[in-house]
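hey can u check if this looks right to u? its 139 residues, i copy pasted from the old doc so theres a chance i mangled smth
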Amino acid sequence: MPNGGSDNCGTCGFNLANEGVWGPPGCGGAEAFCAIRILPIPNPYWTYCANRASREREPDGPLFSQGLYEKGYTRVPWHGEAEPRICGASSCQVCGRDAERGLKLAEELTFCCNAHYMQWWGERHPGIRLKWTHDFQEP
């Protein structure tokens, strides 16, 4: 199993590729699709949500993907149906700093660090409490 942990979409029973089965070995090479959010999951072994643990059929918060490896692995929330991805050289949407590696959301939005992505995300999703907010320092 890829090193994305065991609590990801690749091992989730709500992933249609798993045909209702929970846990390893996971979806293998099949295309992942979330039955709760009605959404394809392009990177299932590095995508997460609270429903994997709760097994509740109503969406519980956003999907999460792998953020930048800064002080260990970090999970950052998707922006609606848009998955933040690790990218090469970028200029930060928040501070303007150029970074060798960053996070990219769509073609025009890039961020130098997880904290700046989270700052930007929080301004667009006020009042949403995230399960993994302890990974970030408040801006």
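DSSP finds two helices and ten strands in the chain.
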